[in-house]
Amino acid sequence: MSDAIYYQGLVKSMMFIIILVSFAPLVIIVLIAGYQYSIVYEEKVEAHLRELVLKHDQSVDSYLEEKVAEIQVLSEVIDIESLADQSRLKELHDALVRWHGTAFVDLGLIDGRGIQVAYSGPYNLQGVDYADEAWLREVRERNVHVSDVGLGRRGVPHFTISLRLESKGREWFLRTTLDFIAFNRLVEDIHIGETGMAYIINRQAEFQTTPRRDMTGEIPFLRELVSDSNSAIAKGRASMTIQTNPATGRETIFVTSAIKDGDWILVYQQETADAYADLNRSRDLAVVVLLLGGVAIIVMAYLMSRRMARRIERADLDKESMNEQVIEAGKLASVGELAAGIAHEINNPVAIMVEEAGWIQDLLEEGLAEGDNDREVQRALNQIRTQGGRCKEITHKLLSFARKIDPTVKHFCLNELVHEIVALSEQRAKYANVVIETSLADNIPPLEASPSEMQQVFLNLVNNAIDAMDPGGGNLDIASRLDGNQVVVAITDTGCGIPRANLSRIFDPFFTTKPVGKGTGLGLSIIYGIINKMGGTISVNSAVDQGTTFTLRLPVGEVADSAACEVGGGDAA
Amino acid sequence: MPANVLLVDDEQGFVETLAKRVANRGLTVNTALSGQEALDFLDKDNSVDVVVMDVKMPGIDGIEALKRVKAAHPLVEIVMLTGHATVESAIEGMKSGAFDYLMKPCELDELLSKVNEAYDKKQAHETKILEARARHIVLRRGD
Fold first, then answer.
1. Which CATH number does the domain housing residue B127 bear?
2. pLDDT of res. A570
3. Which of A25, A186, B13, B75 has a Cα-to-Cα distance from A247 of 20 to 30 A?
4. How far B83 CA sits from the closest chain A CA (Å)?
5. For the segment A251-268, what is each residue's pLDDT rounded down to a tens digit?
């Protein structure tokens, strides 16, 4: 159960790392590149719009200036009498129409009182009184006047150019109407995207050209926009603002340029979304790609980390079974180490039996009647039986130990186990001149572990201790005591000790100081694994030429029947 | 004159029975239960010709005892007894001057023939030494 949680955690952390590592550069690139691209693109669009407006305000201005100049040429070249003459004026107008197309719609001369004295054009406006018109006042002041577009008397949108002339102390006004349609075309052609369009308004936000769509709703907003005569919008050329257009409710770019000495304003407007449509499209594309990529990354990260976690799980399982095999092998190795002693131990009774059998044969050849040969045969047979019993004991001891390792956790009595190991090692110790002493506390409760694994632990430690004291012999002391809820077992030898340099490495697998072929270097690492698995600790204290103490601290299992052990220990003794 | 044999093994039962059987075949037999005991015995009694000794014994083990016997009594021949797991130490023993080795348990006849061979060798050695001594005396007299 906890394993499943562990592997799930593994999947999560792996997934998190994969996603982080793949997403971070992607997001950073998209953000940086997107930001840079949008800045550059916006600048480009702005520059383009400004350029467009500049070009057109110039052309509008030059169109007006040109027309004014042409009328001015007329007024200077032709005298008032000719202008006042209806037929001459008609000729003049015809010539203008011939050479300037329909630009000049009509031509008229007005005297100082405001009465049109001569007129040539499509409307009948001769004799009309303009005395109260605003334009007349303007032209008196400024000599030249270009009017706003208005419906005027004829009910058709038009605008006029008026000049003040002076001849023989009297003042005259030459007035011509310009073709509104041709003028309108100057700005009407500006047409970009869905919403981009240009128009001209005056200071009162009255349209001087016909916008492409009905914009009556936007007039108050435009009036506000251009009303401040000192603002950059009113004064500057191609100044740009971005504002929310209340009529459409959308953010709109306004590029404005003052023309006709600031009387009129050329306005180009386009909704931001429309102006930056390409940018927005590529941004949307990037977002879509990012999202799809993100989904792909997440799915892949999940699948990959799940697969990896599964592999790790399998590897862990393999390792675990390998560990079991290693422990098994280690155990067989330690049994093998015992084999020399055991062989000798078995060999001795066998040798005795063989000799006794031979002796009986000798006696039989002599004849049972001789001397006390009868009793001697009896004694020899008893001896054979005794030695046979010894053999049986030895094989039983060995068999109980060499059984396959069983990792099942059970309650077992430590003292009993120690007695078993001591009995098993006794013969070997005897030949190595080692005296084994045990001082075991009586109150040791049963421990929870695999008994066969614990046998392995103690056999290995005892074997090592005997090896350490090999030539010369010494004392091996096994002591157990209860310390709180831990059982402490100390195995002390008076052997050669472990050099300080090796002390930190003795629990490493394959670390051995024995010659090649003599030791696998697995014994202590297996012990370490077993003790760790049951939640205990193993520590070592050693002084060169003084001896070594291995101290095991083993946790006491959930207290079962602590009396069971004492009874068990009694049986073993 | 039959050989004088010293049997050394830590198993009392083994030594005693073997001693009885060997004695039954007319040899002079003494026993010792450890390497040290054997050395002590040899120091006291220099009539021993052949020592039959187990390789593996507590205290002074067979090989060590062998070396000491050879050092103190070079002419005494030694036959080693060994279980199979200690063949290597038997070979080691041969290198250190043992006459031969036998696997334990062994046939009595085999043991006796080995003991006799060892005894013959010892006697040959002793004869040679006597001859050399005699020649030495003859040479000195010739001066």
1. 3.40.50.2300
2. 40
3. A186
4. 6
5. 888 888 888 877 888 888
Angle between helices A414-431 and A562-572 (to 10 degrees): 30
Domains held by chain B: number? 1
- Residues present in chain A in total: 573
Q: For chain B, positions 43-82, list CB contacts with chain A under 8 A.
A: 56-59, 61
In a domain, A556, yes or no: yes
**Segments forming the whole domain that contains residue A442:** 406-572
Q: Cβ of A431 and B14 within 8 Å?
A: no
Say which range, A99-113, A481-495, A548-562, B21-35, has the weakest mean pLDDT: A548-562
Q: Is the CB of B33 inside 8 Å of chain A's CB atoms? A: no
Instruction: Tell me which chain B residues have a C-beta less than 8 angstroms from the C-beta of A348.
Output: 11, 14
E-assigned strand segments in A23-136: 104-111, 116-120
Best CA proximity match to A37, nearest among A239, A286, A271, A272: A286
Domain count along chain A:
1
Confidence band of A1 (pLDDT split at 50, 70, 90)? low
HSE (side-chain half, CA atoms, 13 Å) at A203: 12
- Among A344, A365, A427, A436, most B C-beta atoms within 10 A, so best to mutate, is A344
Indicate the pTM of the whole model.
0.49
Asked, for residue A447, whether it belongs to a domain, the answer is: yes
Give the C-alpha separation, A81 to A333, whole Å.
140
Residues 358-397 of chain A with CB under 8 A from chain B are: 358-359, 362, 380, 383, 387
Helix axes A373-402, B12-24, angle to 10 degrees: 140
Range of the domain at B115: 4-141
Is the ipTM above a cut-off of 0.85? no
pLDDT in tens, A515-564: 766 666 778 888 888 888 888 999 999 888 888 999 999 988 765 555 45
Report the amino acid identity of residue A533.
K
Establish if B1 touches chain A: CB-CB under 8 angstroms: no
Confirm whether A498 is domain-assigned: yes
- Note whether residue A565 is domain-resident: yes
**Contact check, Cβ <8 Å, B56/A344:** yes
Q: Which residues of chain A neighbour B84 with C-beta distances below 8 Å?
A: 343
Task: Output the CA–CA distances (angstroms, integers) from residue A390 to A385, A396, A555, in the order listed.
Answer: 9, 10, 37
Report DSSP state, residue B86.
G
- Please report, for residues A79, A103, A347, A388, the alpha-carbon distance to residue B104 in angstroms, rounded to integers and kept in the order given: 160, 142, 7, 16
Q: Which H or E element spans position A245?
A: strand A239-245
